[in-house]
Design goal:
single chain, Thrombin, subunit H, mainly beta, 1 helix, six-stranded antiparallel β-barrel, 112 residues
Length: 112
């Protein structure tokens, strides 16, 4: 029995990703509060490009618009980028509100 996060990557990389330019403060067990720059986002997770080093399975708690506090686990790392998976899938209505709040550039927002 493993004590770490149960990480599942199967087919989640195919989820639609939305480009964003959003900075949040997250809570990390060992590093304390860290500032993350979220570069893209899906209902399953997000990618940062701030160059902070994490290990696969690291857990963060982030506060996102319309969603509030949510845990995210490190799925992959590559040079200055890190991929995180949410502990749960975000509901569609909350996700749409969150994307609207995080994409102030109208060219990035899909017309609904």
């Amino acid at each position: 029995m493993s004590a770490g996060a149960q990480l599942t990557v199967t087919d989640l990389r195919r989820a639609a990703r939305h480009p964003v330019d959003h900075t949040v403060i997250a809570e990390h067990a060992q590093k304390g509060e860290v500032t993350l720059h979220i570069a893209n986002l899906s209902a399953h997770g997000f990618m940062t490009d701030d160059g902070i080093e994490y290990a696969r399975g690291d857990r963060l708690i982030v506060r996102l618009p319309s969603v509030g506090r949510i845990e995210a686990y490190v799925i992959w790392t590559a040079i200055e980028r890190t991929g995180f998976q949410f502990e749960r899938i975000i509901r569609l209505d909350d996700f749409n509100r969150m994307i609207a709040a995080m994409q102030p550039n109208p060219r990035l927002t899909r017309h609904r």
